[in-house]
Amino acid sequence: MAIVYDSYRHDLAATGLPLLAAGNPARTVAWHDGKSVSAAQFLAHVQQVAAVLPSGSAAVNLCEDRYAFLVAFCAIVLRGQANLLPSSRAPQAVVDVMAGYPGSYAVGEQALDPAPPGYHRMPVLDATPAQGDLFVVPLIPADHVVAIGYTSGSTGVPKSYPKTWRSFHASNAGNLRALRAVVGGHFDVVATVPPQHMYGMETSVLLPLLSDVGVHAGRPFFPADIAAALAQMPGPRVLVTTPIHLRALVESGVMLPPIAAMMSATAPMPPELARTAEERFGAPMLEVFGSTETCVIASRRAADDEPWALYEGVHLHPQPDGTAVEAPQLETPITLADIVSLQDEGRRFRLCGRHADLLEIAGKRASVGDLTRRLLAIPGVQDGVVFQLDGDMIGVKRIAALVVAPGLDEHTILEALRHSIEPVFLPRPLRLVDALPRNETGKLPRAALLELL
Fold this sequence. Notes:
Layout: E1 2-7, E2 16-18, E3 28-32, E4 35-38, H1 39-50, E5 58-61, H2 66-78, E6 82-85, H3 91-99, E7 105-108, E8 119-121, E9 134-141, E10 145-150, E11 160-164, H4 165-183, E12 187-191, H5 198-210, E13 213-216, H6 223-231, E14 237-241, H7 243-252, E15 261-264, H8 271-281, E16 285-291, E17 295-301, E18 308-310, E19 315-319, E20 322-326, E21 334-336, E22 338-343, E23 348-354, E24 358-361, E25 364-367, H9 368-376, E26 383-388, E27 399-404, H10 410-418, E28 430-432, H11 446-452
Parallel strand pairs: 1-9, 3-13, 5-6, 5-7, 6-10, 7-8, 12-13, 12-14, 14-15, 15-16, 27-28
Antiparallel strand pairs: 2-9, 3-4, 10-11, 16-17, 17-18, 18-23, 19-20, 20-21, 22-23, 24-25, 26-27
């Protein structure tokens, strides 16, 4: 069967990049309801949805089912539009994002009540591939903004970052090289993170679109559901997850089918958790480092607490207020708030904290991240976070903590902290709560922390 590449904007065909790489029409793009979905079937579904989408500059992709998200993502791109990916799918968050793009609409596979303004429900995916000797893969202009991601809001108001199709092709190449070095040429992915998050976008949307990778259509949350999803694919299997999800999986005692590797992001992976997971599931843990601004730029073996190894073509330049990042997927360098220490002629680095996390009180210094790690090390503390409050009327910024620790009281926790941190950094107030307000990827939006406090 011949493969034909067709541009939806013929004037930019010369600079177009394929919507679907690894162009074998029979190769598996996704696993849905326990069945393999071929590339040919997938493109037929994309064309079916693209034909009924309205005009506009952008659309909020609200699909819960990962396969429906993949189809809608590509259909929106084929219409020359951008996928809007708010940090939350809460109704107000969706409305706020749409307000910045007049004429935008929302699309999803479910009947929503209440539904966002201009909500379009996807049709039942029943299109069949065209018969014949040609397999037509659309070309997308390299400079087309296909997605606009938003930061989580963990440090304030979410910010938007546009992603072109060229930048996604470039960032996917780094992730693919890192995984193939551990797993080999072909593998399938089960992800516990939503595709709307940039980490989920890179690992469960771009990998199956731009590589010979199949992805499970679900987003399993409970340990038994993760095991069931993995069992529905032949493998080699890669589990894409977060430290919060992985800890629950390890503590559940659930047995998993053989997996080739685990990948984690969104929060620091404790080395002891990584080692326990590797022993339990018999697979290496690959931790990746990135952001909505830059996409993934480095990886490491978390169990050994290795320095981070930069992806090919990525260069870091320490600054007084953070670190400037050069990467193949970036048009210009972007400065992150992370403070790093470079090693091995700049090809590896250690994280020293974030500029906004560094504290200086009474001539002493500490980082919010380190204080949180010491809090979590206290026996009986199940979850917790230390953060700095906004300044009061005279500019004093107090340190606060929220802790999940059934069986402990505030006094006991503070006394335990006195043994490992300077008294000036003891969090006051420290509040016991039933659960932290983590979002779908385990992050803690600052507004939610302040409201709970």
